[in-house]
Amino acid sequence: MIQDLAIFWPALAAGLLVTATHVPLGIRVLDRGIVFIDLAVAQIAGLGVILGDWLGFEHHGVAVQLFALGAALAGALLLSLTERLWPDVQEAIIGVAFILAANAAILLLAANPRGAEHLKDLLVGQILWVKADQLPILALVSAAILALVFWWRSRIGFYVLFACAVTMSVQLVGIYLVFATLIVPALATLRLGGGRRLTACYLLGALGYAVGLALSAITDLPTGPLVVCTLTALGAALFLTRRI
């Protein structure tokens, strides 16, 4: 029990930090009608991780993190440019960016004997492997991003902060949970306004991670997919309740 708790609480803290930065960004993503941008930027950040690893750098080292951040920033700024130039087809461009980055990652992993494992880690994350000594740095980065989200309201600012937030979270919780954390709370609270919506999003995200992690500990099922399903089920219940 003590060993399970030692794994559980850093994972929950990491999930709450991801929720803290992704909720306001998710609301803005939904309001702007560019829902799949998070998948695209997360996949591009993942491509940066795979590229750094392919070039021989340590998988969790600083160099690989810089590759991930550089790739995410480049992708985000490119999508910011395409939104300004061709706003009528922005969603289609985002889709093309996602599928291109995904297939480029597969090509880089093709000759890697552990390629399938790396791809799985990228998709579902490794939230249970978060260590307590990582949390202070994650908390500082999250606080800085969160402060800038409410202050830097320009289009460029949105894309830059989005890239930074996704780079931090994609290796912790995976692409699937990044998408779910961004979109599910924002969608479930669509009919709420102002501070009520933000509060409801945070409560929903925290509950989704807590219940999902607890169920994973009880059932021994994969944590990332179970948190996605739990968060989505809670979000659907809230959305349908508000509709009724």
Rg (C-alpha, Å)? 17 Å
* CATH fourth-tier homologous superfamily: ABC transporter involved in vitamin B12 uptake, BtuC
- Overall outline: globular
CATH class: Mainly Alpha
CATH third-tier fold name: ABC transporter involved in vitamin B12 uptake, BtuC
Which residues sit in consecutive blocks of at least 5 with pLDDT less than 50? none
Overall mean confidence score, pLDDT: 85
Main sheet: strands, sense, barrel: none
- Number of spatially distinct domains: 1
Summarize the amount of helix as a percent range. over 70%
* Number of beta-strand segments: 0
The CATH architecture can be given as Orthogonal Bundle
State the end-to-end CA separation.
41 Å
Which structural class should the secondary elements be placed in? mainly alpha
What string gives the helices and strands in order?
Answer: HHHHHHHHH
Oligomer: single chain
Structure summarized in a few sentences:
With 244 residues, the chain is mainly α. It has helices at residues 2-32, 37-54, 62-85, 90-109, 115-124, 135-151, 155-188, 194-219, 223-243. The chain has a single domain (2-243), classed as ABC transporter involved in vitamin B12 uptake, BtuC, CATH 1.10.3470.
